[in-house]
Structure formats: structure tokens, C-alpha cells
Write a structure and sequence with these properties.
Bound molecules: flavin-adenine dinucleotide
Number of helices: 8
Radius of gyration: 20 Å
Shape: globular
CATH architecture of the largest domain: 2-Layer Sandwich
Strand order of the largest sheet: 6-7-12-10-11
Number of strands: 20
């Protein structure tokens, strides 16, 4: 295992700030996962596994070892008349994997097209978009337990998946995911419930969409709505959509009739955080090198911020004003370090 000292993290995360790490390494095998975990223990340096850094904000120097996951490989383990079982290395690019499956005619993740990041990070916050969450296609996950220094296998029901969360997110840095096992469908149920997907299909005059049509529609929607991290630093949605009890929702709805919310159970509602932020006047606002994206208020963008702290401070201002106006405390979706 090779380590580099005092490296800039700018090329390794989508906010592209100039924070540094005291040590850096690249993981390409399960053996190197064990090695980096051992190195971190022996040298008493914290360990951070990095995918492609599209859901991370470094606000200061990382005093420890950052290990970039590049364990690759897509393997078909089993195939029946209706399903395929795939084993995918944690370092594979997520969108590449989605496109690979779409081309093969294996359905289940096409609505998650163009989400930046790696396959290994996809279960961490249970990535989701356009009515689909990755948890619905995951069979199991192989991970290294850095506490007990053993390999563990998590079946889907042991991953504690929820809205933008999982056991991996909650037990920070304990598990290093090496491989994810997916079950995909050969005769998939296409999810076109989102109005915007139907609109794009209608505009393209597509009546019986294929997996490729759905994926292309999602790519078009995302390209039009979200900033490209290669051009403008960002990490997608900066905040989670808050889930609140029904009584609180009814009170807010009385006061703010335009409030956007969806029931999540008999007792709770999920509020559109983007709407709350926009209603506080933040959409399109820039302060210094940081701004609230003009097409989607949930996205904080960097116009060349040098320090992640500047971005963090901007997010604090948004949290404070949403709290003052609606009494709701927004939770960050992005991992802050
Ligand atoms: C433009 C844009 C749009 C986005 N849209 C969406 C969206 O629609 N839906 C959505 O859910 N997310 C979205 N995201 C967020 C992001 O793409 C996902 O969270 C993605 O899964 C992050 O992958 P990554 O490899 O970049 O993870 P990183 O940012 O590198 O890491 C994220 C976290 O996972 C941990 N981690 C990463 N890999 C491993 C591993 N192998 N083992 C253990 N821990 C690991 C890291 O330590 C860190 O805590 C968007 C981001 C951007 C920039």
C-alpha cells in the first residue's frame, strides 16, 4: 500500500475546495482495504473512505488518511428467466453501472441515471431520485468491519435503509464497503409516475418507453435542472427534505397554503426543503463565492470558494432563516468534515 503525504483534495471532491489531507492512498483490492485499516490503527490516524467526493464538504484539513475507493468489476453471478444477480466493485462509477444495465435490458435503477458517485457509496445514503431508491435493488453488501477487523455480509434487511440513510451512514467510518450485490429485473416495472418524466416522454412522442427511453428522459431532466459539478462546484441537494408530524404540517399548511409536502405515513409528512428555502428568498442569491442555485434552491453552489468553511457558513444562514420563518430545522444531506 502506498501513501502520499499532504495532498490537496481539490481534484477529489465535487465542491473542489482547496482543503488538504495529511495522508492519502488508493484502494484497488480487498487486501488493500485491510491494509489501509491496519495502517490507520497502527499510526493512530482516522480513516476516511472517499468515493468520488460528490456528497462531501471538507471544511478544514483532514488530519488522517483519506483512502480513495477504486475497487472495480461488474460480475454476473446468476441469471434466471426473470432476474439477474450482479456483484459490483465499490469503485465502479454509478452512472456507468446504470448505463451498462440499461443497455443489457436489466431494469430497476434506470431512474437513478446520472447521479454522480461510486457504486460503493450508493447504499451509504440510500441514493434516490424520481420515485426510486437504490435499496429496492440491493440484495446484500460485503464490507470490512474496521472495529472487529473482520469481513461482514449484510443482507438487505440488515442495512437499516431509510430516507437518505443506512447503517453505514449511521455508524460513521466503521464499515468499508467493497462490493454491492444487486438484483435487477428482465421484465421491469417502469416508474414513470413523476409528471416531469411523463412530460419528457410525451414531448418525444414515446408511448411505450423502454429502459433506454426512461434513462434518456432522466438524463435530460437532470441536465436541465442541476448544475454540472465539473463546471460549478456542488454536491447536489445540500439538505434533506424534513419529515414532520401531521399536526405540525396542518398548522404550517394553514399559515402557508402554497407549502409543498407529501404524506410519508398516516402520521407524518415530508416537506419540500427546496420550497422552504425558496420561500425565504434564497433562490439565486450569491454571497461572496457561494450561492443558492438559481434553478433549484436545494443546491448550494461554489463559484470558486477556496475554503469549505465559506460554503458551510452559507448553509448555516439558510438553516437559520428557514428556522426563523417556519420553525423547521433543516438537516444537511452532505457529509461535513
Ligand atoms: C449534481 C449532483 C446531483 C446529485 N443527485 C443526487 C440524487 O439525485 N440522489 C441522491 O441520493 N444523491 C445525489 N447526489 C449526491 C451523491 O451523488 C450521492 O450521495 C453519491 O452516492 C455519492 O457518491 P460518492 O462516491 O461521490 O461518495 P463520497 O462523496 O465520496 O462519499 C459519501 C460518503 O460515503 C462514504 N463512502 C463512500 N464510499 C464508501 C465505501 N466504499 N465504503 C464506506 N464508506 C464509503 C464516505 O466516507 C462519505 O461519508 C448528487 C450529487 C451531485 C453533485
Amino acid at each position: 500500500m502506498q501513501t502520499i503525504n499532504n495532498i490537496s483534495l481539490k481534484p477529489y471532491h465535487s465542491f473542489a475546495c482547496k482543503e488538504t489531507a495529511s495522508h492519502f492512498s488508493i484502494i484497488t483490492s480487498e487486501h488493500e482495504i485491510e491494509e489501509v485499516a491496519k495502517w490507520s490503527k497502527i499510526n493512530q490516524q482516522p480513516l476516511l473512505i472517499l468515493g468520488s467526493g460528490s456528497n462531501i464538504l471538507f471544511t478544514k484539513k483532514y488530519e488522517g488518511i483519506v483512502a480513495k475507493m477504486e475497487l472495480m468489476g461488474i460480475k454476473k453471478l446468476n441469471e434466471t428467466a426473470s432476474e439477474v444477480l450482479l456483484e459490483v466493485g465499490a469503485g465502479e462509477n454509478w452512472h456507468y453501472f446504470v448505463s451498462y444495465c440499461v443497455q443489457k435490458g436489466w431494469g430497476g435503477i434506470e431512474n437513478l441515471s446520472l447521479i454522480p458517485g461510486t457504486v460503493g457509496a450508493s447504499p451509504i445514503q440510500n441514493i434516490g431520485a424520481y420515485g426510486v431508491e437504490v435499496k429496492d435493488t440491493i440484495k446484500s453488501i460485503s464490507a470490512y468491519d474496521t472495529f472487529n477487523e473482520t469481513w461482514v455480509n449484510f443482507n438487505n434487511n440488515e442495512c437499516e435503509f431509510g430516507y437518505r440513510t443506512s447503517i453505514f451512514k449511521n455508524s460513521k467510518n466503521r464499515y468499508i464497503i467493497s462490493k454491492v450485490h444487486f438484483i435487477l429485473q428482465k421484465q421491469p416495472n417502469l416508474k414513470t409516475d413523476y409528471g416531469v418524466i411523463r412530460e419528457v416522454l410525451h414531448d418525444r412522442n414515446i408511448k411505450n418507453p423502454s429502459l433506454v427511453d426512461i434513462s434518456n428522459a432522466i438524463i435530460q431532466i437532470r441536465t436541465e435542472k442541476l448544475p454540472d459539478p465539473k463546471k460549478i462546484g456542488n454536491a447536489g441537494s445540500f439538505f434533506k427534505n424534513p419529515i414532520i408530524p401531521i399536526a405540525q404540517f396542518e398548522q404550517l399548511k394553514n399559515e402557508f397554503p402554497a407549502l409543498i409536502a407529501y404524506p410519508t405515513s398516516d402520521t407524518s409528512y415530508k416537506l419540500a426543503a427546496g420550497w422552504l428555502i425558496e420561500a425565504c428568498g434564497w433562490k439565486g442569491i450569491q454571497k461572496g463565492n457561494v450561492g443558492c442555485y438559481e434553478k433549484q434552491a436545494l443546491v448550494i453552489v461554489s463559484y470558486g470558494a477556496i475554503s469549505g468553511k465559506e460554503i458551510f457558513d452559507f448553509s448555516e444562514l439558510i438553516i437559520q432563516s428557514v428556522k426563523n420563518k417556519f420553525g423547521i430545522t433543516l438537516e444537511r444531506e452532505v457529509n461535513i468534515l
